[in-house]
Amino acid sequence: MSERPDGRKFDEMRPIEAKVGVIEQADGSAMFKIGKTIAIAGVYGPKQVHPKHLEDPEKAILRCYYDMYSFSVPERERPGPDRRSIELSMVIKNALLPAVFVKEYPKSQIEIFVSIIQADAGTRCAAISAASMALADAGIAMKDIVSSVAVGHVNNKVVVDLNKEEEDVEGTTDIPLAYMPRMKKITLLQLDGKMPKDKLREAIALGTKSCEKIYEVQKKALKDRYNTSGE
Amino acid sequence: MIVDGVNFKKYVMELSKKEKRVDGRGLLEYRKPIKIEYGVSKNAEGSATVTIGKTKVVCGVKLEIGEPYPDRPDEGTMIVTAEFAALASPEFEPGAPGEKSIELARIVDRGIRESGAIDVKKLCVKPGEKVWLAFIDIYVQNHDGNLIDASALAALAALMDAKFPKLKEDGTVDYKEHTNEKLPIVHKPIACTITKIGDKLFVDANVDEENVSDGRITITIDETGTINALQKGGMGGMTEEEINKCIEIAMEKTNELRKFIV
Question: What is the ipTM of this complex?
Answer without folding.
Answer: 0.91
